[in-house]
Specification:
Helices cover 25% and strands 25% of the residues. The protein is of the alpha+beta class and 428 residues long. The protein has 2 domains: 93 residues, Sandwich (Immunoglobulin-like), CATH 2.60.40; 253 residues, no CATH class. Helix 5 runs parallel beside helix 7. It is globular, with a radius of gyration of 25 Å.
Length: 428
């Protein structure tokens, strides 16, 4: 394919990143028909199938983000060498999309002969090496945009936010339609839970917590959106089937401009995000409560994403936590009556609290995961439910335990998952 001297009118955009053989960037969608293809040598190795809005491109109303999943391995070095081109092809023009300068420099770096690089580094005065290393992120790299953890699982986004990128569930691929969910089996699972509980006159709430990248999608270092397509499909189909699913995404999106709803260095909700989710669940249950504005503590902690940059030294962040929750005139009178942990891992962890002064005199059983956790602070949903309900049971499990429900006779059952775990339908 010869593109020498070719141009495209009304065209603007950049290639911004290459991650796991996927190419990301943006292009201005002027009123013209065109396609966007990745060409390695003379072979098309990927095509952009959809274009998604990005908040960081608001100044360019026609600009959209794109992603191209390549069927072969590609690197920034291929862009610099000219082997790889991202071609915008219209009926009259073919143009090569320019490369964002930092990505181009990454390609130059990858093309450097390692022996020559070592010689150059050894020639640098020792007094300057530390400053240079810090500037380029070799030591104490900080959270500059695009920086990867050593294990390749976490990547830094904008404004200091860290994001899960790969790992067990490949969350970045949720937004590019490279992940297919078994939505039919998820709906069957939800309906079976609902039918069983309605027969016992127990209220049921299903919660699927959205990923941080689905709320702070404009900060993500990869193409993301306000909810991945499969996540939104599951939520919408659940609502259409009258499943009592708590759609917390709109409220989190609405609140994020006022207060942080996720922690910067963690996959989990902040205290304020947890508060929004709890109030959304209460609204779905038809429960109304009021509580005094809690006092706030500032606590240093290490997040589950931040800990992957341990080579940086001090990776703690200052996190807001509520000291306690006071409903009406009564202080919470909470007793942890059961605490059970498995020998390894998290599955099967159990906590049961009783609260004699709770504003809602009902028993709640929750089958969930790390969003509820052990209730140790106000970022855990269990912290809230232990203070709002007279008895709260938390079982760390994706499955629905019929025997446990029949033994405890709760008023309410909550089942909780998270967007990235939607690839795995529970057994019950």
């Amino acid at each position: 394919m010869d593109i020498t001297g070719s141009t495209a009118q009304n065209f603007e955009g950049f290639v911004e990143a290459i991650v796991d053989d996927s190419i990301y960037g943006w292009v201005n969608l002027y009123p013209m028909q065109f396609s966007l293809s990745a060409v390695l040598g003379e072979v098309v190795v990927g095509v952009a199938e959809e274009f998604l809005p990005r908040d960081d491109l608001r100044s360019k109303p026609l600009a959209k983000g794109f992603s191209i999943r390549c069927n072969v391995s590609v690197t920034p070095a291929d862009l610099v060498s000219g082997k790889l081109k991202i071609l915008l092809i219209s009926s009259h023009n073919i143009a090569s999309l320019p490369v964002w300068r930092p990505l181009w420099e990454a390609g130059n770096f990858l093309n450097v002969n390692l022996a020559d690089l070592k010689k150059a580094w050894n020639s640098v005065p020792s007094g300057s090496k530390k400053a240079i290393a810090q500037d380029v992120g070799i030591v104490q790299g900080g959270r500059e945009f695009g920086r990867m953890s050593i294990d390749g699982i976490v990547q830094a986004g904008r404004n200091g936010y860290l994001f899960l990128l790969t790992g067990r569930n490949q969350i970045s691929k949720f937004y590019t339609n490279d992940v297919e969910l078994d939505i039919e089996n998820w709906l069957t699972c939800f309906l079976q839970r609902q039918n069983f509980l309605s027969g016992l006159e127990i209220k049921y709430v299903q919660v699927v917590i959205p990923e941080k990248s689905s709320v702070y999608y404009e900060y993500a270092p990869f193409t993301a959106s306000a909810g991945s397509p499969p996540y939104l499909d599951l939520i919408n189909l659940s609502l259409e089937n009258n499943i009592p699913i708590c759609n917390v995404l709109p409220e989190l999106l609405k609140a994020k401009d006022n207060r942080p709803v996720y922690l910067q260095g963690d996959t989990h909700l902040s205290t304020f995000g947890a508060e929004i989710v709890v109030n959304s669940i209460l609204e779905l249950l038809g429960e109304s409560i009021s509580y005094d504005t809690p006092l706030i503590d500032k606590v240093l902690r290490v997040g589950d994403l931040g800990e992957r940059f341990v080579q940086d030294g001090d990776i703690q962040e200052l996190v807001s936590m509520y000291k306690d929750l006071r409903c009406g005139n009564a202080d919470a009178d909470i007793e942890l009556i059961l605490s059970r942990d498995p020998e390894s891992g998290h599955q099967g962890r159990q906590r049961v609290w009783r609260n004699r002064t709770a504003p809602i005199k009902k028993i709640v059983v929750c089958f969930g995961g790390s969003s509820f956790e052990r209730g140790e602070n106000s970022g855990n949903l269990s912290w809230w439910f232990a203070r709002l309900f007279s008895e709260f049971h938390f079982i760390w499990s994706p499955d629905f335990d019929v025997d446990y429900i029949e033994a405890t006779s709760p008023d309410i059952v909550i089942c909780q998952s998270i967007e990235r775990f939607l690839t795995e339908v529970p057994a019950s």
